[in-house]
UniProtKB/TrEMBL annotation:
Protein keywords: Antimicrobial, Bacteriolytic enzyme, Glycosidase, Host cytoplasm, Hydrolase
Catalysed reaction, written as an equation: Hydrolysis of (1->4)-beta-linkages between N-acetylmuramic acid and N-acetyl-D-glucosamine residues in a peptidoglycan and between N-acetyl-D-glucosamine residues in chitodextrins
GO BP annotations, alphabetical order: cell wall macromolecule catabolic process; defense response to bacterium; killing of cells of another organism; peptidoglycan catabolic process
Protein name: Lysozyme
UniProt key word Cell inner membrane: no
Keyword Disulfide bond: no
InterPro entries referenced in this protein's UniProt entry, alphabetically: Bacteriophage_GH24, Endolysin_autolysin, Endolysin_T4_type, Glyco_hydro_24, Lysozyme-like_dom_sf, Lysozyme_dom_sf
Protein species of origin: Acinetobacter venetianus (strain ATCC 31012 / DSM 23050 / BCRC 14357 / CCUG 45561 / CIP 110063 / KCTC 2702 / LMG 19082 / RAG-1)
Family assignment from sequence similarity: Belongs to the glycosyl hydrolase 24 family.
EC number(s) on file: 3.2.1.17
GO MF annotation terms: lysozyme activity
Xref: Pfam families: Phage_lysozyme
Length: 194
């Protein structure tokens, strides 16, 4: 690191601002994280997909329902937590589906939330971290996920601070919900699992 800073000082005329030193340090940390990820065999250049453990996590909290129901905050939901059908139409009161349709909706939703995580996170992730993030995004939605402090911390390579953000997503409306507290604990534990 010191040699790189000295080289940058030399080519910049002898002086670097603290902001330039910090930016260089961050860049080196990202490069190092990618090198470590490569050594550990963590895929970083390809799109990640959720594992069976991640799917099990999501489905353990998203009960299968073949008739639309109000999710307790006024959002109509069907299948394994589907709120928007693959054709872009919102689920509404009175809707029903077959088991096969519910599975199809779930696969469509998984692709959407995997894409949100792949597009939002710019640092290496383990499979467990990716699975936990997809579960979170699946529950809170793509916009909330993409603009979350959790993603900001993660992209700044602060994995610990990112993990500490999971419990904050425990509200439905303005109420803390026990089910969300349990889900966030499970997601955080998976995120931190080696």
């Amino acid at each position: 690191m010191k040699a790189i800073i000295e080289y940058l000082r030399k080519i910049s005329g002898g002086k670097l601002t603290q902001k330039q030193v910090d930016a260089t340090d961050k860049l080196i940390n990202v490069a190092t994280a990618y090198d470590v990820a490569d050594m550990l065999g963590i895929a970083i250049d390809s799109e990640m997909t959720i594992s069976s453990e991640g799917i099990q996590l999501i489905t353990s909290f998203e009960d299968l329902r073949l008739k639309a129901y109000d999710d307790s905050v006024g959002v109509w939901t069907i299948g394994y937590g589907t709120t928007i059908y693959p054709n872009g139409v919102a689920v509404k009161k009175g809707d029903s589906c077959t088991l096969e349709q519910a599975k199809s909706f779930f696969q469509h939703d998984l692709r959407r939330f995997q894409t949100a995580v792949n597009d939002s996170v710019s640092v290496p992730l383990s499979q467990n971290q990716f699975d936990a993030l997809v579960s979170l995004a699946y529950n809170i939605g793509t916009n909330a996920f993409k603009t979350s402090t959790l993603v900001k911390y993660l992209n700044a390579l602060d994995y610990k601070a990112a993990a500490d953000e999971f419990p904050k997503w425990n509200r439905g409306g303005s109420k803390v919900l026990k089910g969300l507290v349990r889900r966030r604990e499970a997601e955080r534990a998976l995120f931190l699992k080696k």
